[in-house]
């Protein structure tokens, strides 16, 4: 027996009785045993025997005495009820002990024979004016899961829900608060599929409402399409509206089909809950009233009892709000437009005596206000856009000026260094020509070298580092303004051209920076080379004790301080990019040897005298 065959037998049993389907997880059927055909009676017992997990209750009652009932997963005899029945003054044709023993003889191995014996027992009791009824309870969730599980599999989770008829389903919705219905029926992670044992509309969109006994006819592709729309809508309702506390988000497109199918007003509170929910910025609950926050400035947080308010609005009022939502729906995923819609609602409902209650009456006014607000917002945006364009022009002009100024200053420093060196050469020539005294050339030149290496080269290195910082700041400024412009419309600007111009200026500045750094390094090596030459000249051409020896000693001390003092201190130069400690050490060695060389004869004489 399949789950579909099971429900067909259950429906046959219900044809002569009453069905109570008022709960989400269970339903009950109550019928007179004698009203059922014998074959239907036996089929019911076979259905129970095949799917005992589908039952939450199973009783056979004679007037007020339970004769047989479900005990765990087994059907058992209620001996107390049987004995009470036997004690009654029944027709002699009703042999209670016979049927009691007969049940034990057939159950559980011959369930159909056991059912036939019970049916005969019930018929005898009915003839003896004793009313025998059957009460069964069904686990709807288990049955629905097996029905779909046997027929359909998807990549997403399903939430199968079984109801006897759509009317029972709508009555259940009408008897519960909207937020409870949203939480129970419309889960965020699973797609609801409503199965009905009778009178199903057999619709797929927005959520399937299908005949339970015909689940094999559910069109799989359409179900998948409906599921995609469901998850997309539920995601939007959760993303753009803050549902506070334990409130579950729900989108009007999911409820709309139920509301249109339901003839009465039972689904109206749920539909209004979803409509006002997505139209507002936040939803909260306070007891039986719901609070919808449409705007915080000016503040408009109306509280309403949806059941009472929907009764006042009626179907026409709900239709009017639904019409407003259709206009809003195209822009519901854009925060800026949502704000304008909420301001338009606030403008026409806030401050009035009836507040949000008059919303259905001002729908056209709200739409008109939204258009006005939209035009104002566009104008403001274009004004802001104009400011950004002006800022962009200023940015590019400033960018060019800053890079050009920094690069020119660096180049000028390099030129000044060159002129300084030329000045030193001219001064030496002047010394030789004016006084014909070459002795002053080494100490004077060494003094000039100390000034240039010790003070002037670090200044130029600072200029180069300033240029590097300027390039970094220009890049950051460009990124900032680019993001600022993209807020409006990236299609209005050709960022490729703007990026190309910026890169050209930055590339030019980086080339100048690299050139300046290379020239500075070359000048440093050239100065050290000259320094070494002057040291050798001073050591080998002049005797110890003359000004040349003093110049060598002072220059050695200065160069040693520059090479080994801490980089972050006022004298250390080893952290500068142009500075080479290895070259400085070689120069120090040459200076030391040149200083010691004039003392060698003195040392040799002292050794010989000793």
TrEMBL record:
The chain crosses the membrane at residues 417-435, 441-459, 523-544, 550-571, 583-608. The keyword Coiled coil applies. It comes from the Archaea. Residues 464-491 form a coiled coil. Keywords: Coiled coil, Membrane, Transmembrane, Transmembrane helix. The keyword S-adenosyl-L-methionine does not apply. This is CorA-like Mg2+ transporter protein.
């Amino acid at each position: 027996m399949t789950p579909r065959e099971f429900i067909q037998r259950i429906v046959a049993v219900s044809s002569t009785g009453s069905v109570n389907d008022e709960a989400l997880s269970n339903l009950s059927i109550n019928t007179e045993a004698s009203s059922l055909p014998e074959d239907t009676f036996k089929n019911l017992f076979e259905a129970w025997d095949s799917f005992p997990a589908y039952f939450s209750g199973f009783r056979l009652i004679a007037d007020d005495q339970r004769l047989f009932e479900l005990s765990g997963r087994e059907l058992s005899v209620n001996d107390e009820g049987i004995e009470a029945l036997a004690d009654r003054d029944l027709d002699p044709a009703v042999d209670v002990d016979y049927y009691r023993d007969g049940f034990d003889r057939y159950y559980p191995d011959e369930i159909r024979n056991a059912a036939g014996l019970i049916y005969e027992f019930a018929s005898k009791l009915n003839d003896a004016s004793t009313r025998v009824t059957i009460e069964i309870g069904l686990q709807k969730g288990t049955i629905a899961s097996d029905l779909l599980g046997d027929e359909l599999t998807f990549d997403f989770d399903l939430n199968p829900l079984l109801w006897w008829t759509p009317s029972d389903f709508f009555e259940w919705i009408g008897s519960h608060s909207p937020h409870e219905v949203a939480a129970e029926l419309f889960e965020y992670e699973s797609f609801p599929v409503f199965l009905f044992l009778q009178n199903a509309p057999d619709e797929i969109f927005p959520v399937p409402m299908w005949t339970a006994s015909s689940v094999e006819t559910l069109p799989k592709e359409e179900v998948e399409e409906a599921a995609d729309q469901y998850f997309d809508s539920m995601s939007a309702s959760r993303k753009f509206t803050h549902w506070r506390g334990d409130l579950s988000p729900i989108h009007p497109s999911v409820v709309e089909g139920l509301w249109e199918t339901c003839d009465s007003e039972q689904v109206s509170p749920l539909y209004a809950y979803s409509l006002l929910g997505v139209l507002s910025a936040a939803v909260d609950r306070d007891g039986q009233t719901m609070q919808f926050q449409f705007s915080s400035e000016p503040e408009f947080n109306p509280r309403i009892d949806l059941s009472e308010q929907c009764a006042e609005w009626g179907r026409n009022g709900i239709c009017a709000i639904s019409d407003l939502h259709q206009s809003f729906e195209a822009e519901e995923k854009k925060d800026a437009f949502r704000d304008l819609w909420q301001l338009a609602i606030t403008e026409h409902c806030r401050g009035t005596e009836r507040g949000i209650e008059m919303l259905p009456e001002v729908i056209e006014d709200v739409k008109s206000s939204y258009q006005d607000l939209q035009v104002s917002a566009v104008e403001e945006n274009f004004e802001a856009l104009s400011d950004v364009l002006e800022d962009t022009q200023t940015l590019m002009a400033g960018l060019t000026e800053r890079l050009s100024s920094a690069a020119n200053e660096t180049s000028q420093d390099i030129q000044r260094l060159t002129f300084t060196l030329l000045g030193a050469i001219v001064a030496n020539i002047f010394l030789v020509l004016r006084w014909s005294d070459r002795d002053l050339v080494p100490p004077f030149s060494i003094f000039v070298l100390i000034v240039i290496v010790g003070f002037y080269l670090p200044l130029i290195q600072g200029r180069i580092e300033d240029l590097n910082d300027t390039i970094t700041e220009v890049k950051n400024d460009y990124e900032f303004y680019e993001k600022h412009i993209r807020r409006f419309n990236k299609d209005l600007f050709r960022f490729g051209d703007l990026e190309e111009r910026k890169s050209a200026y930055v590339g030019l500045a980086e080339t100048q920076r690299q050139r300046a750094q290379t020239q500075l390094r070359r000048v440093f090596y050239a100065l050290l080379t000259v320094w070494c030459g002057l040291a050798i000249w001073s050591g080998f051409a002049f005797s110890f004790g003359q000004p040349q020896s003093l110049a060598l000693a002072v220059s050695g001390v200065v160069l040693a301080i520059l090479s080994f003092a801490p980089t972050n201190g006022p004298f250390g130069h080893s952290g500068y990019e142009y500075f080479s400690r290895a070259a400085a050490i070689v120069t120090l060695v040459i200076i030391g040897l040149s200083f010691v060389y004039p003392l060698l004869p003195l040392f040799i004489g002292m050794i010989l005298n000793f």
